[in-house]
């Protein structure tokens, strides 16, 4: 059987800290095994349009601690759902044959795709066309069921926690309710972990629709007890029991057209109108995706990268590396994408938050 000699690697979807550490973790051992590595640029866009560069050790040296991705990324380049402009209108076409053509023309034996659930879905579809694939899970959202944690999440949580520490002092000085809106799409992991680490008094997440009255009660009660400020950490996908998710806009070119955003401002306004307390809000946005990965993410990303190249060499195609407990295992990509990992009301972090008095905007969970 033909040996694996040439690896393609790409980073798909939104970027996050730790992508470069994976690229390094794949490329260095690949060269030690005498393989060549082709870095595909801008995610699947590069695979469809034929944009790539050879990766040598010098290219991956010194990138462990840098955020972003040296290969570029995109969440608009789905080969099976390719947005093309015709007469000023966006038409969605299938360009997966171009992806296959480039894979073959480049002489690749395997494609290592680093990305979140959108990337893993596309990777799985490409494998059904005959492309050999290995997946590496990334996303600040931490919403992939098959792995205990994705790299990038810890770095995002660190940013949220630090932001809450900063808001804490100004909230307490001015006796205000400070609301911070964080990312995570339809999963509340960033808000839950960041809020817990940063001492939020109220955490609102998509999995636990909240009741406005409980939110107002919490900040009023704190005031009555002499705590004249409160910190609210709200996930961008959180929604009230009687309302909808707040959407900032739609972009048909994206794999997922929905752009979330605006719930932080709404929560801040409603608290002010209904309690008379002074409020301010901040949207952390892409600060959560930028900058240097935490040590945890650097280690996880390096382990993921080096395990992915091992899978590729052993021809364990169609698999994704995953963290299970303290060990790196592999799972079938098709199993990995079958379910999204959402916060359960029984999660230990939820219970711990509850035990120290955090409100989720509900009576009891
Ligand atoms: O999936 C990662 C993520 O940062 C989400 O938390 C967020 O909703 C989304 O990407 C933002 O995407 P974009 O950078 O395309 O606006």
Could you explain how this protein is built, in words?
The chain has 365 residues and is of the alpha/beta class. The protein has two domains: 6-151 and 293-325, Rossmann fold; 154-289 and 344-355, Rossmann fold (3-Layer(aba) Sandwich). 37% of the residues lie in helices and 21% in strands. The protein contains twelve helices and 15 strands. The chain has helices spanning 19-32, 44-49, 57-60, 96-105, 117-128, 153-174, 189-197, 212-224, 263-275, 295-313, 333-336, 348-355, and strands spanning 6-11, 36-40, 52-55, 82-86, 89-93, 110-115, 133-137, 177-182, 202-204, 230-235, 247-250, 258-260, 279-283, 319-324, 327-332. A seven-stranded mixed beta sheet has the order 3-2-1-6-7-14-15, sandwiched between helices. A four-stranded parallel beta sheet has the order 9-10-8-13, sandwiched between helices. Helix 8 links the parallel strand 9 and strand 10. Helix 6 (153-174) crosses helix 7 (189-197) and helix 8 (212-224) crosses helix 9 (263-275). The radius of gyration is 22 Å and the shape is elongated. The N and C termini lie far apart (56 Å). Bound molecules: 6-O-phosphono-beta-D-fructofuranose.
Task: Describe, in short, the structure shown.
The chain has 365 residues and is an alpha/beta fold.
């Amino acid at each position: 059987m033909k040996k694996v000699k040439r690896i393609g690697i790409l980073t798909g979807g939104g970027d996050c800290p730790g992508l470069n550490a994976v690229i390094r973790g794949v490329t260095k051992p690949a060269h030690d095994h005498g393989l060549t590595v082709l870095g595909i640029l801008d995610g699947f866009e590069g695979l469809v349009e034929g944009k790539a560069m050879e990766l040598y050790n010098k290219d991956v040296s010194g990138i462990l601690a840098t955020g972003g991705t040296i290969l570029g990324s995109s969440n608009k380049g789905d080969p099976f759902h390719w947005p093309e402009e015709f007469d000023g209108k966006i038409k969605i076409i299938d360009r997966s044959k171009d992806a296959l053509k480039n894979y073959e023309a480049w002489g690749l034996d395997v494609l290592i795709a680093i990305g979140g659930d959108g990337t893993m879905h596309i990777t799985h579809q490409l494998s059904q066309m005959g492309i050999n694939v290995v997946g590496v899970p990334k996303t600040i959202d931490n919403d992939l069921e098959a792995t205990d944690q994705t790299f990038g999440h810890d770095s995002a949580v660190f940013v949220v926690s630090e932001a809450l520490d900063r808001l804490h002092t100004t909230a307490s000085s001015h006796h205000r309710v400070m609301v911070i809106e964080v990312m995570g799409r339809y999963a509340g992991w960033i808000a839950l972990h960041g809020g817990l680490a940063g001492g939020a008094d109220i955490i609102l997440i998509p999995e636990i629709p909240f009741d406005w009255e409980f939110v107002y009660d919490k900040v009023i009660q704190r005031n009555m007890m002499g705590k004249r400020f409160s910190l609210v950490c709200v996930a961008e996908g959180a929604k009230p029991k009687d309302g909808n998710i707040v959407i900032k806009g739609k972009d048909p070119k994206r794999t997922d057209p929905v752009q979330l955003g605006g719930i932080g401002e709404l929560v801040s306004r409603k608290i002010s109108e209904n309690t008379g307390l002074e409020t301010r809000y901040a949207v952390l946005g892409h600060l959560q995706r930028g900058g240097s990965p935490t040590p945890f993410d650097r280690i996880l990303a390096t382990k993921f990268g080096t395990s992915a190249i091992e899978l590729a060499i052993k021809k364990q195609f169609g698999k994704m590396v995953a963290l299970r407990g303290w060990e790196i295992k592999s799972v079938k990509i098709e199993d990995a994408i079958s379910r999204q990992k959402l916060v359960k009301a029984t999660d230990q972090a939820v219970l711990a938050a509850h035990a120290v008095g955090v409100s989720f905007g509900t009576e009891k969970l």
